[in-house]
Amino acid sequence: MISIRRRMAATASAFMFVALNAMPAFAADAASTAPLDEGGLGEIIVTAQKRPENLQATPISISVMRGEDLVNRHVTSLLDLGDGAIPSLKIAPFYSRNSALIVNIRGIGVLSDANQPARDQGVGVYVDGVYLGRAQGLGTALFDIANIEVLKGPQGTLFGRNTEGGAVNIVTKKPSGEFHVNGTGGIGNFGSYKAEVHVDLPAFNNIALKIDGVIAHRDPLVKNPLAGSEGFNRYDKRGLHVEAFWKPSTDFSADYSFDISKDESTAQYLNLVAPGTNIRAAAATVQPDRVRTANVGVPQRPSVGNVEGHRLTLEWEAVPQITLKSITSYRKLHQTQFDNGSASTSMSTTPAVLAPRGFTGFQFARDSLALFDQNQWSQEFEAIGDVGRVKFVAGALYYREHVSDNAQAFNTNTFTDAAGSTFTAVLIDPATQPIDRASHVTTRSIGAFGQATWTPAIINDAVHLTGGLRWTRDSKKGALEIVNNALPVTRAGVVGEIGLDASWSRVDPMVNIAIDLSRDVHVYGKWSTGYRSGGANARSQQYDPFDPESVSIFEIGAKTEFFDNHARFNIAAYAGSYKNIQVDFVRPFETGGIRTTRTTLSTVNAPGTGGLHGIEAELTVNPLEGLTLSASYAYQYVRIPAAVNPYPNAAGVISTLAVPVYQTYTPEHSASGAIDYELPLNGFTIRAHVDGNYDNGYYSTAADPRYVGPGNPTNILQPKTDKAFVVNGRVAVGDIAMGGSDATITFAVWARNLFNEQHLRYTTVSPTSGQGGFFNEQRTIGAEFNIRF
């Protein structure tokens, strides 16, 4: 493995050396011998360092999805970026729930379950500078987006906690102060439709107002045979956003934003891909391919999420060199999470359980309801300035979050014959069922940060030295209220709630050296750190706290433009360490000193140090007027040390066998490419887009280090998901003038997964139950029109 790493590092270094030495001369030769069309690639502005900057001059690895890119890919929510549009970014539903999203960058983000109050993800998601604290609510419809910036690698200095893998920085379009209307409506297969409208109103008394509304619907992708019940994987998304921008003078502005969303979706369907050793009911047919209809009908209800938020951003240019900024935000969400998508894998059992009546009376189809309530308040102050040869940003942040949850699980179906071919199904009222687990927690975080870039008067101001530091203190106070339908029991045998009262302090530094080799060639070397906050596992028995995990990465990169700004090539290579990794362990359930076969999960910081390294490259070329070719690639490798379950088994014996732990949602190789063409004609413009997205598979389950002993002699190795190659496309005829008005209309057709490619996006295996899996979504197509004036 060490030799492989060395070869990869040597390859990356050689590649970068050749590129950096060849490109300036290559660009000069091309410019002098091959006249190119005017125009070229436009400048992309990002805010990764808390100020607007040219992407090419920002010395960190960033990928950007612009608003037009989202339209071309028919992106409704962040979940639609899960097809691999940005290779080092992986977004996926939490198990079958479209309402909670897993977000990974460079293989860092979440190893197992972050769908609970006192655990966090390792990638921060921000909208207009406001951190979104929960995985729930990330699946809501997107409003009018200017850019989605994906900041790769630890962002602990400027963004703070829970950005060890990176950050997703969403920037919305601001009020313009001029009257504009941009409306889109469309329909598609599976009963889908979408409508959105964005209205800019004329400024009045120096106040500009913008209103955004969006509605998106899709019928189930998998039908439910049970009459009157919801199908699988359908959604309804509705949202409203209002923003007012007040600028009474040239040196002061106030920007207030309010948004409210409703996201209603049903669980995805888990296929029984391959059988296990257990006896299967006759109804439990194996479905190795994607299906249009489930093999068994189950009662199912939609999960409903309601999200709303307020933001107030104040900016004051105190002096020409310094701007003071304040971002105040309050957000809340209420999420119900129903899940009855796994019936096909729960219709088997051992002969002992079936005797003597066979499947008669056997219950299956585990339905569940997880309720989740959260509210958060944050206040950030920033000072952004340019003084002489120093650019700086300094600030402080206060964040408070309160979260509570509870969960219930119950079987809805019962077999009525010995063979397991017929059954009854009952829609159960959760109010009649006991609570399986419940907890609450209040998180507080305070931090102070500073970063400065000094450009010394040497080599024509081509060298830029940056240093940054952030101090953070986190605290979490809460309690585990219920575990396994009963009050928790402490290790001392006391029955009652188990409290959590833990705090951690952290310092995250960053050092960056950037050199402008020419106007169009920039190289940098960077060292940075980040961390994921500590917490406690709400699925555990004693609610033991665990500490933060951290990442430290060295990165080198180059950002280049050539062919007279008609081509852009960026590359980065990185390597680092991964410490105090938060790993889940399955343990037997214990109450009153008696252990049973029922299990819960506990989380500990596994000993040992893991490693991660990779390469990222992006190429964009504008060879002809109107034609843009783009390609990106990521190699990612994450190593997690093998771990031993520290909890005793039912016989009181602690296993000494270390078992592997897999980093989830991390393909080793992934790539994306796109072709965009624009052809202006007499009175209209033709626009065409096609993109292809590939990955070579990944682990979707961490293969939790299980208790190894009687009843489980070996740890089951989990399989990887299938290789994937998904193609999307869009063709539009636009800019068609409407009479003598300023209005224009555009007609377009689009397709996602154009060739109906099939792969397992999630898979897990058990020797007894068999292999289950979620398939990617089948081909969706549609047509839409847009009007602007």
Give a brief description.
With 789 residues, this protein is mainly β. Helices cover 5% and strands 54% of the residues.
Using only CA atoms, what is the Rg?
27 Å
Fraction in helix: under 10%
| Large-scale geometry | globular
Average pLDDT works out at 89
Query: How many H/I helices?
Result: 3
Instruction: Write down how many β-strands occur, each being a DSSP E stretch of 2 or more residues.
Output: 41
| pLDDT < 50 runs, ≥5 residues | 1-37
Question: Mind summarizing the main beta sheet?
Answer: 22 strands, antiparallel, barrel
Characteristic key phrases:
41 strands; 3 helices; mainly beta; 5% helix; globular; 22-stranded antiparallel barrel; 54% strand; 789 residues
Task: Tell me what the structure shows.
The chain is mainly beta and 789 residues long. Helices cover 5% and strands 54% of the residues. The protein is built from 3 helices and 41 strands. The strands form 8 sheets. It has a 22-stranded antiparallel barrel. A 5-stranded mixed β-sheet has the order 3-8-9-6-7. Strand 31 and strand 32 form a beta hairpin.
Topology:
Blueprint: H1 2-33, E1 45-46, E2 53-54, E3 62-66, H2 67-72, E4 89-94, E5 97-105, E6 123-127, E7 130-131, E8 145-152, E9 166-172, E10 180-188, E11 192-204, E12 207-218, E13 235-249, E14 252-265, E15 271-275, E16 279-280, E17 303-319, E18 322-339, E19 348-349, H3 351-354, E20 363-387, E21 390-415, E22 423-425, E23 437-454, E24 463-483, E25 498-516, E26 521-532, E27 535-536, E28 545-546, E29 549-562, E30 567-579, E31 582-591, E32 594-605, E33 609-624, E34 627-639, E35 669-681, E36 684-695, E37 724-737, E38 744-752, E39 760-766, E40 770-775, E41 780-788
Parallel strand pairs: 6-9
Antiparallel strand pairs: 1-2, 3-8, 4-5, 6-7, 8-9, 10-11, 10-41, 11-12, 12-13, 13-14, 14-17, 15-40, 16-19, 17-18, 18-20, 20-21, 21-22, 21-23, 23-24, 24-25, 25-26, 26-29, 27-28, 29-30, 30-33, 31-32, 33-34, 34-35, 35-36, 36-37, 37-38, 38-41, 39-40
